[in-house]
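Renewal narrative, Specific Aim 1. Our central claim is that a sequence can be written position by position from structural information alone. The example that follows is taken directly from our test logs and has not been curated for this report. It begins with the C-alpha cells describing the chain, in the order in which they were read.
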C-alpha cells in the first residue's frame, strides 16, 4: 500500500504541473501549434514591397512632380528639354518626309517633260510654271538664265573672262548647292536630338538618384519601400531620353540616304543641262528623240 501511494504521487505532480503550464490542456482542449513569427512579418513585407513597386511608375512620378514642383526642379527641366527635342524631331521628320515624297513624285515628270519638249522656250515656260518648292525646275531655270545672260553680253569682258561652258557650270554648281542645302533642313536638329537626348535623360536619372540617397541618409531607412520609389522614378528619365533619341536617329539615317539619292539626281540633271546649253545637245543616247 505504501508503494502504491508513493508510485502515484509523481503522476499527480506531473498532472498538476501540466495544468498550471497550459490551462487549455487541463481543460481538455486540443494543443495548438504556435504560428511562426515570420509569417505575419512576411505578409507585411510583401504588402510593403508591392506598395513600393507601385510607386515606380510614371503616373506616381507625375503626381509627385505636380504636388512638389520645387523639389523636382531638375526633373521638370529635363522633362521640358526632352519634350522640346521630341516635338522638334517629329516636326522635321514629318515635314522632310512629305517634302522628299513630293520631290520624288514630281522629279521624273518634270525632267522627262523638259527633255521631251521640242522647243526650248516652251520647256523653259514649263519650268516656270512649276511649284516654287520644285528643285529640278529651279536648277534648269538658273542654267537657262546664265546661258541667256552670257549670250546677251557677247563681246564684253564677261565673255572674254569666262567662256560659255564655265559660266553655265558656275551657275549650275550654285543652283545644285542651294537645292541640296534645302534638303538638309532639320537634319542638324535630328542629329543633335539623337546624340544628346540619352545624356539629358541620364542627367535627370543621376540627379534623381542623388536626391534619393540624400533623403535616405537623412531618414536612416534603407528598406525596399524607401529605395524603390525614388530610384525607379529617376530611371524613368533615362527611358524617356532613349524614347526621344531612337526615332530621331532612325529618321536622320533615313533622310541621309534619301538626300544622297536626290543629290545624285541633281548632279545627273545638271550635267545634262550643261551639255545642252553649252553645246546645244545632250551627250549620249539619252539625247536621241
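The sequence written for that structure reads:
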Amino acid at each position: 500500500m505504501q508503494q502504491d501511494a508513493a508510485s502515484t504521487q509523481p503522476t499527480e505532480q506531473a498532472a498538476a504541473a501540466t495544468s498550471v503550464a497550459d490551462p487549455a490542456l487541463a481543460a481538455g482542449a486540443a494543443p495548438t501549434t504556435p504560428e511562426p513569427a515570420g509569417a505575419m512579418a512576411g505578409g507585411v513585407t510583401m504588402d510593403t514591397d508591392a506598395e513600393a513597386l507601385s510607386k515606380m511608375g510614371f503616373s506616381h512620378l507625375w503626381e509627385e512632380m505636380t504636388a512638389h514642383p520645387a523639389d523636382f526642379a531638375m526633373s521638370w527641366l529635363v522633362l521640358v528639354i526632352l519634350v522640346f527635342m521630341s516635338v522638334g524631331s517629329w516636326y522635321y521628320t514629318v515635314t522632310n518626309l512629305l517634302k522628299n515624297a513630293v520631290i520624288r513624285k514630281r522629279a521624273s515628270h518634270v525632267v522627262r517633260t523638259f527633255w521631251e519638249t521640242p522647243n526650248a522656250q516652251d520647256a523653259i515656260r514649263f519650268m516656270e510654271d512649276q511649284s516654287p518648292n520644285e528643285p529640278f525646275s529651279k536648277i534648269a531655270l538658273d542654267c537657262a538664265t546664265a546661258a541667256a545672260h552670257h549670250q546677251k553680253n557677247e563681246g564684253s569682258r564677261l565673255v572674254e573672262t569666262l567662256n560659255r561652258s564655265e559660266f553655265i557650270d558656275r551657275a549650275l554648281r550654285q543652283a545644285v548647292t542651294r537645292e541640296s542645302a534645302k534638303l538638309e533642313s532639320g537634319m542638324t536638329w535630328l542629329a543633335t536630338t539623337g546624340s544628346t537626348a540619352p545624356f539629358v535623360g541620364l542627367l535627370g536619372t543621376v540627379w534623381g538618384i542623388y536626391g534619393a540617397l540624400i533623403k535616405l541618409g537623412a531618414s536612416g531607412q534603407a528598406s525596399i519601400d524607401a529605395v524603390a520609389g525614388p530610384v525607379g522614378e529617376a530611371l524613368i528619365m533615362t527611358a524617356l531620353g532613349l524614347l526621344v533619341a531612337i526615332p530621331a536617329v532612325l529618321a536622320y539615317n533615313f533622310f541621309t540616304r534619301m538626300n544622297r539619292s536626290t543629290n545624285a539626281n541633281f548632279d545627273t540633271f545638271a550635267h545634262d543641262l550643261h551639255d545642252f546649253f553649252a553645246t546645244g545637245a545632250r551627250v549620249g543616247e539619252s539625247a536621241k528623240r
